[in-house]
Amino acid sequence: MAYHMLVYVVAFLPATILLYQLVPQKFRYIVLLCANCIFFCSFSKGLIIYLIAAILVAYFFARWIEKIGEKKSDGQKAVTKAKRKVLALGIVLNLLVLVVLKYTNFFAKSFIDLTNVFGSKWKFAPIRFLVPIGISFYTLEIISYLTDVYRGTIKAEHNFAKVALYLSFFPQTMEGPIARFSETADDLYAGRGITFNNLKFGYQRIAWGLFKKMVVADRFYYMVSYIFSNYQKLDGSIMLVGAMAYTAQLYMEFSGGMDIIIGSGQIFGITLPENFRQPFASKNASEFWRRWHMSLTSWFREYLYIPLGGNRRGPGRKILNTMIVFICTGIWHGANFTFLIWGILHGVFMCIETIVTKDKKDAGKHFNALAYIYTMLVVIIG
Most CB atoms within 10 A, among 38, 73, 94, 348? Predict the structure, then answer.
């Protein structure tokens, strides 16, 4: 049951809306929890056990961090150190599940391929892992939740249902956007009634997303499939057209999905973070990443780039941190060297812009036409 399927738009979502509106407000969160379970199980069936385990880890580790923070008699340094250890353990447990399920075959095959270069004759037999939907997204949300509790920017939630709703809300299970606990948890649990305006604008956004996905992206798909399947026979200029068409297809499919997701949330009065803001109007790679997959960019900036030191330790360290972030961004998108190279490519151009321009916001300011062309080349080649 994908977001663009009729069963979602005309059956599952309307049924959830109707049942949500009919039950008393204090029980509406239960309707959403049940809808989350049904949607998740429609893809992953029994693998919902992974999601339940992840929710339990998030809930109890946040409470653990909070409890340690209350021990003021131990001294501030000792408390901070103990909290940091619990945070690290919680993050490692969640990342370990993600790495084992999604990246074991990639790392194992890469290692065997490397040894074969030096004469070994090992063969690789892929392990078939059953990977639940959304694991990449809810793993990052758990890390942000635990980190925010550790930092003291939010308090650990004592209501288990709130944590479960936050990590399993069905519109964002598959593709995000990556929300922070403080952005959605309270609204999800509040169970406010559905208003006419929310219903109207929510379905308008869903309709726009369906148009982008089914009318535009799916039409580009046939062109892209033909060109990429016959690249050995085609002229280079046709390959460029194929790359441009694929860029448009990817954007329309991804942003169309986001429109459906955000529109679905809006119906229930849930404001999910925007993920795109006219990315192809960007004048440099840095600006592109402030407009493209914004919730992911924000997450990596807040929970990886800044903890690594950000730009506070000089230009050399800033470049290193940028490359680390984009290597992780590439690998996060998929267990394949193509994704790794794509992340490195964008990281390299971000670093070049850091060196060439004193202020990234001013990059391309005086050569707008050339700046747009440069940015599109970076994005399309990537």
Answer: 94
Length of the chain, please?
382
pLDDT score at 367:
57
**Residues whose CB is less than 8 angstroms from the CB of residue 60 and which lie 6 or more positions away in sequence, other chains included:** none
pLDDT tens string 223-272 = 999 999 999 999 989 999 999 999 999 999 999 999 999 999 999 999 99
d(CA 257, CA 216): 12
Q: List pLDDT tens digits, range 288-300.
A: 999 999 999 999 9
Residue 364 has a pLDDT of 47
Q: What is the dihedral of CA 269, 275, 281, 282, to 10 degrees?
A: 140
Q: What is the 3-state secondary structure (H, E, C) of 135-168?
A: HHHHHHHHHHHHHHHHHCCCCCCCCHHHHHHHHH
Residue 276 pairs with which residues in a beta bridge?
292
Burial label, 205 (beta-carbon count in 10 A; 0-12, 13-18, 19+): buried
Question: What burial class does residue 214 get, using C-beta atoms within 10 Å of its C-beta: 0-12 exposed, 13-18 middle, 19+ buried?
Answer: middle
DSSP string for residues in 252-280? HHHHHHHHHHHHHHHHTT--PPP-BS-GG
From residue 283, give the alpha-carbon distance in Å to each of 172, 250, 279, 360: 30, 20, 9, 10
Task: Give me the active site residues, please.
Answer: 333
Q: Give the rounded distance of the alpha carbon of 202 from its chain centre.
A: 21
Is the pTM here over 0.70, yes or no? yes
d(CA 351, CA 290): 15
